[in-house]
Structure to design on (448 residues):
């Protein structure tokens, strides 16, 4: 059993992991940059170590500093949360080489799924449906034109090491393709140091559906249903819900079992998420995230499963606490990502929180590390809180969410709370009638 876990992250997710550890009787070590000395997880952890200056590459991405903090505090394990080091295969290997447990999958699986071409080949081999496209990298412009002609326009040019929409371009015609390939390669090289790209069929109005899985070292694999993350801006999720308002129970069981069997065949270990585009009844694999997801709370709300606790148990070598037949999906949950950004321009707005009041009541959860007087630093992601609510059904959930958003106060900085208040009043959102492009179209058509 672990006695002490170092949390290699910051903000709300660091606090989330701390809480799970404390409820399991495990001591925590908070690492932090100079800018995060007053952060909530730093205040609450059993021990805290400053590992560097404010820029992430001098602190939260500084592998020697993180390992030194783990060694001097005697940490048994490191939990990377999401972002930062969570999908860094090299870091996972180095942690293991130092005799410390990395709470996550093996470096091999992180590496495989981090390469989108290899990931696609791997899951296809195990029966997961994929988007029609190239079987590997596009080797030349002529090769790209051949593949595009075969699968039909429009096509999507994607970076193999990409993420967050970078290195991703749409080509409507062959005339667009040369520019799309050149631009995608340049963006990918600048962002990821890797200009390998591939092609996929561009789906016109898909939804973003993802399946949460957990797998232990005893051969047990479970899926925890799906999340619908279709409300996105620039490929960044804004609102997520579980279950999806468009899937039937039969579809949920079918795709869940497909994913569960594939994960078992891969020998995967830990928590992970298989992400799909869904259109006209078909599921098409886009990527696998080998880590905890930002939106994991909606799954926890409808299943009652503590995903972080299960991650820790798996890393300890224990079997999953539940079997697939034990999983029941109860009610409906929605998460709003609250960012310190202007709700129209989305310009980051860090600064001092002058007032903070979070909503409460039955089935209302807020994951946030904010407090009155806290200064949001300008160096990191602008996510400052997640509001998660549960209802008996989707309508009940939306009504509770509307009420909770009215109560949520973050004074002193601009936030995206007003945007979420608009969304929960919108007829399309209420009806569940949207795809991954809906939010961008909505924002483009707002009056100045």
């Amino acid at each position: 059993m672990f006695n002490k876990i170092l949390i290699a992250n910051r903000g709300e997710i660091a606090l989330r992991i701390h809480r799970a550890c404390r409820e399991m009787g495990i001591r925590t070590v908070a690492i932090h940059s100079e800018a995060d000395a007053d952060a909530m997880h730093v205040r609450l952890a059993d021990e805290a170590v400053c590992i560097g200056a404010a820029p992430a590459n001098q602190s939260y991405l500084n592998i020697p500093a993180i390992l030194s903090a783990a060694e001097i505090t005697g940490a048994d394990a490191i939990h990377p949360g999401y972002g930062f080091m969570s999908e860094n295969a090299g870091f996972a290997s180095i942690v293991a080489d130092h005799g410390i447990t990395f709470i996550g999958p093996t470096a091999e699986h992180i590496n495989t799924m981090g390469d989108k071409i290899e990931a696609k080949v791997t899951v296809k081999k195990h029966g997961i449906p994929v988007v029609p496209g190239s079987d590997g990298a596009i080797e030349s412009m002529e090769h790209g034109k051949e593949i595009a002609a075969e699968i039909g326009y429009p096509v999507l040019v994607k970076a193999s090491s990409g993420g967050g929409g970078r290195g991703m371009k749409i080509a409507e015609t062959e005339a667009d393709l040369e520019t799309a390939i050149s631009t995608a390669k340049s963006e990918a090289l600048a962002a990821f140091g890797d200009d390998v790209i591939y092609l996929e069929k561009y789906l016109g109005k898909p939804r973003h559906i993802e399946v949460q899985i957990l797998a232990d070292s005893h051969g047990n694999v479970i899926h925890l249903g799906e999340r619908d993350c279709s409300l996105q801006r620039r490929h960044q999720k804004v609102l997520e819900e579980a279950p999806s308002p468009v899937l039937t129970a039969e579809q949920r069981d079918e795709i869940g079992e497909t994913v569960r069997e594939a994960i078992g065949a891969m020998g995967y270990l830990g928590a992970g998420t298989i992400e799909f585009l869904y259109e006209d009844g078909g599921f098409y694999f886009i990527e696998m995230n080998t880590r905890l997801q930002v939106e994991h709370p909606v799954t926890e709300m409808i299943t009652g499963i503590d995903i972080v606790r299960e991650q820790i148990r798996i890393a300890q070598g224990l079997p999953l606490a539940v079997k697939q037949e034990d999983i029941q999906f109860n009610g409906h949950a929605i998460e709003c990502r609250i960012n310190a950004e202007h709700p129209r321009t989305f310009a980051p707005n860090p600064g001092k929180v002058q007032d903070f009041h979070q909503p409460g009541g039955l089935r209302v959860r807020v994951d946030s590390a904010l407090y009155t007087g806290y200064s949001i630093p300008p160096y990191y992601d602008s996510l400052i809180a997640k509001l998660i609510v549960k209802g008996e059904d989707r309508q009940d959930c939306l009504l509770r969410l509307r009420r909770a958003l009215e109560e949520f106060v973050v004074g002193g900085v601009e936030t995206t709370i007003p945007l979420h208040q608009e969304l929960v009043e919108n007829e399309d959102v209420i009806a569940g009638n949207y795809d991954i492009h809906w939010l961008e179209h909505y924002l483009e058509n707002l009056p100045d």
Observations:
- The first strand starts at residue 4 and ends at 7.
- The chain has a mean pLDDT of 95.
- The chain has three domains: 4-103, 132-201, 207-444.
